[in-house]
TrEMBL record:
It comes from Chryseobacterium cucumeris. The chain crosses the membrane at residues 51-72. The lineage of its organism: Bacteria, Pseudomonadati, Bacteroidota, Flavobacteriia, Flavobacteriales. This is Thymidylate kinase. InterPro entries: Kinase-like_dom_sf, P-loop_NTPase. Keywords: Membrane, Transmembrane, Transmembrane helix. It comes from the Bacteria. The keyword Transcription does not apply.
Amino acid sequence: MRNLFKNIGYKLYLKQQTGSKRISFSYIPNQDGSVRWFWNSRSKKPLFLKFYNITTIKGKLFAFVVHLIFFLNLQKVVFKKETLYYTSEENPLFDIMNDWAIFTGTPGPNNKAVLFADKCFFKIAATKNAKNLINKEYKIITYSGTNRLYSTPSASLINDCVLRLSDISNNGKRQKKFSGIHAKALQGIKEKYQTAIKISNWKHFGTLIENFTTIDDNRIPPNLMRKLKMILENIDKDEMIHLSFSHGDFTPWNCCVKDDILGIYDWELASFEKPKGFDFFHFIIQNSILVQHMPWKETWTQIRKHNKTAFNFNDNELKKYLKFYLLTNVLYYLKLYSEQEQWHLQIHWLLKVWSEALNMYLTEIKTERELLIMDIFDYLYPQKYAAMKFHDKEPENLPLNSDIDLVISFQDASKMAVFLKQNSLVNRIKIVKKSFMYNIRLITHDLKILNLDLIYQLKWKHLEFMETHRMIDHAEQNRYGIKISSPQDTAKYLYYFYTLNNSKIPDSYKSFVYENASETIMKSKTECITMLKNKECNRGFLFLKNLGGYLKDIFSERGFIITFSGVDGVGKSTVISEVSELIEKRYRRPVKVLRHRPSLLPILSVFTKGKEKAHQDIVNSLPRQGKNDHFFSSLLRFTYYYADYIIGQFIIYLKYVLRGKIVLYDRYYFDFIADSKRSNIKLPEGITENGYHLLLKPKFNFFLYAAPEKILGRKKELSYHSICALTASYGRLFSKLEKKDPKIKYLSIENNDLDTTLGTIMNTIIAAK
């Protein structure tokens, strides 16, 4: 502060000096306690609001409260104050005892303070870089001049440290939304200078890339750096790029509207080498991040919307010039931030959105799932957490059937859930909040699944077996910037997890566990439970709380029912087996496979042959060989099996669906409609079809079919004619049911290629809401 006042004609002292005078400064601090704005405590006007962006509801409310405080003359009571002493030099820039205010500026190598006094702004350089910038700004304003499409302040260079600027914001209004007035001003700026060159000849871009290679700052998220390198490596150096004159920091807080003309100030970052559209993209993106706190997908929507007013780029041009805006801006600021000792919160906001914005230029190199994983770990980079059982490779190389388990605090888990909801790569998200964790299923636009467990309490049923904060504290960062739980904590977790769940430790983990786990925990399941029950965290009120949470968790997510129909030999058993495995491994849900019906009631032949004999005969007999053709006996058989469906469906729902399991039916009620002979029933189709109305409808129903020749090549249980007739019957039924209730999936799939069939089935399940 002493250097600041020295440059404007005053010397400050903490104690009374010979000839010095007393003055009190009032001030408003930053979040870190440093001074943001300060002014003469005797001032009757809140001139520091000249530095404040009053465009949002929050900003307007703050300005109203400040004006009210000054109107009631309460400023000396409300704001912090400090008393100092000063002496003046021969010709100070302003009268320190009058009304004035100073903004201390943003910390960093470009730091400048801004003084408002005598209806003028004075930029006061605090660093060598800042001196160069104010000299540059003076020259740029002289060059750009007042234009019919925009206006600039008049400028005069007081000395190499101080630039005086007229106040063109007086009686003007700042607008946070991009409008036709802004578009008109951008046309005026662009018209000053335009050119087209090869990227290989673009010196500014080359310098930015060269500076980027020198960055060595472990505060920058590693995946953001990797994304930039991948994009830069794939740039065609022979491509032509249009450059134009640009303001360089065209934002709502550097503009004001007056008499339908846009006044623009802060020209220190103006350039002749920025890509076309730079100022347009900068206005939308900076405003959305720093003022409106919008996620990237909403920002991208704003860019496409206002593009029609500003430049009317076609889709390819829009993406191209947005890419080069992002590259030039991000490369410049990453170098600047790497030289900045202290980072303010806004830097982290910018890094997060920039990283997500770059994803659209990497989809030919990385899948959406891979990019999403990179985004997740960059988001987590400055936070405390412990990743469990995570591989020691690039994070995005996580196998498709693997998930991400993170031990993290409840507060950070909640914030991360919001981040994931807003990520532009996420097409749909399912969040199941349990008493001890968030279970999150993410589905990308290309229908890839990523599952995350955000664990804030390590529990087995109602017993807490490890402390999460200790595991987080012990986490070790690997070479990819991922904080991995320590070998000791991981081994302990694995031992408890498999022992308490009555499972053997897999061979892949066995040696690791026994090498790293303490002998004190190597106990049987019964001994472990006894030991855990005696822990303070599992006793008294905490016991009741954990028990209540566990009971609630049982019903935290409902399952659903999937049915598979088709003639014998079409490949249902293979498909069901594969789908079951995919749902358990990739969709992360437990599966229960049932055959034909709920089977609450036994097959009828059990009553005449006995259970074992009846089931053996079913296995050994061919389908559709029953001789029953009597209406009443068929009606009795159907009524018996129908009762099994009516009653059993509720048992299945309570036992499996309500507890989160996915039930797969190998054949279902549709057999009674399309192929009742298979159950030795001969009834009019209308009777069995009407019975379906009273059943709970399965969420997904798949009818598998294939050419008769292909089926007969697998099994010769049915005739060619029967296969054709049954396939047609099932097809008509599924088509009719689909038209009646489009909310339920009835899908006919030709099962020629297993991978194609599985892809269709899984995509249908994943895409459904």
